[in-house]
């Protein structure tokens, strides 16, 4: 292999094609770390947010940048598409969230209200609201149409890194530097349940497609899968040797992908907790990771400023 080393575990082998093979793509253009990556709902475009203060929208087939969205004055930490793919939200260290028209690249609205860096942004399933998490320890819910703040959720005692709506819109999960995952019930006045199990800061939370399981990962180098709504710990995944930056579910909920400062992406079997494959060789810490909607591709952003796409085949 020309660009990566593969370590295989168990009977199932996930083949990441080498850089010289089709359809691997390397997306070049960012001048800083590629911190966040997100596929459009139809899988035809890919967005990335970077420490170079820009957001890029790419054609993953040609590796060409379709749009460069300029407007943030500091690192862009998170990007997320709305459900129909017509808008993109980006959150930044500049304390704002911006919403963009993905066809024209036009800035539609800037949301202000956090008092520190906004580390996370996620659309509600109906596309009418956004949830954000910030270093100011607050989770905020916004009306996208009006650009207005609907609610501020208080409970975390340290900065928040990750927030995400459940697929049914009933719950919001959040995690950060107080080592606790909170699950906020949007149908019960946003009361929250605490999920306790991590020993260090939580960098990422992610729901499976049923909304019945939640994954969390962070600086204790572990991923935990929880049962929702009872908050029971189902399984702990161990193998990374430095902090985990991001955890995401495969579309069929059978696998997890985790990206880490140890310069690897690991693919895990959810049922057994075993590592199915580990991708190494980028030579830099890996930040964002995202499955394509059909589950055939993985997009990975890293501190070498590049976004890489691998085909994943069982």
UniProtKB/TrEMBL annotation:
Keyword Glycoprotein: no
Keyword field: Repeat, WD repeat
InterPro entries: Beta-prop_WDR19_1st (IPR057855), WD40/YVTN_repeat-like_dom_sf (IPR015943), WD40_G-protein_beta-like (IPR001632), WD40_PAC1 (IPR020472), WD40_repeat_CS (IPR019775), WD40_repeat_dom_sf (IPR036322), WD40_rpt (IPR001680)
Keyword 4Fe-4S: no
Stretches assigned to the WDR19 first beta-propeller domain: 163-311
Organism: marine metagenome
UniProt-listed SMART domains: WD40
Entry-linked SUPFAM superfamilies: WD40 repeat-like
Protein name in UniProt: WDR19 first beta-propeller domain-containing protein
Stored Pfam families: Beta-prop_WDR19_1st, WD40
